[in-house]
Design brief:
By secondary structure, this protein is an all-alpha fold. The protein contains 4 helices and no strands. The chain has one domain.
């Protein structure tokens, strides 16, 4: 595991988002990095498409959420 140096402004944005999303600061930064990496690799996909793809890869059935 390594360290990533980020600016104070970005760190503050990550801190705020982590509070809203109930994640640690590190988990929020990692989430944003992962989504950003996937978005760069798949520029035609929307954020929602990326999330659906990741849920499908994790074998999570999102169709059952509507029935609940």
């Amino acid at each position: 595991m390594g360290l990533v140096k980020i600016g104070d402004n970005v760190h503050e944005q990550v801190r705020r988002a982590s509070t809203v999303m109930c994640r640690s600061i590190n988990a929020q930064a990692e989430f944003w990095m992962k989504i950003g990496m996937l978005a760069e690799a798949n520029p035609t996909l929307s954020f929602n498409d990326i999330i659906k793809s990741e849920l499908a890869a994790a074998d999570i059935d999102t169709a059952n959420e509507d029935a609940a």
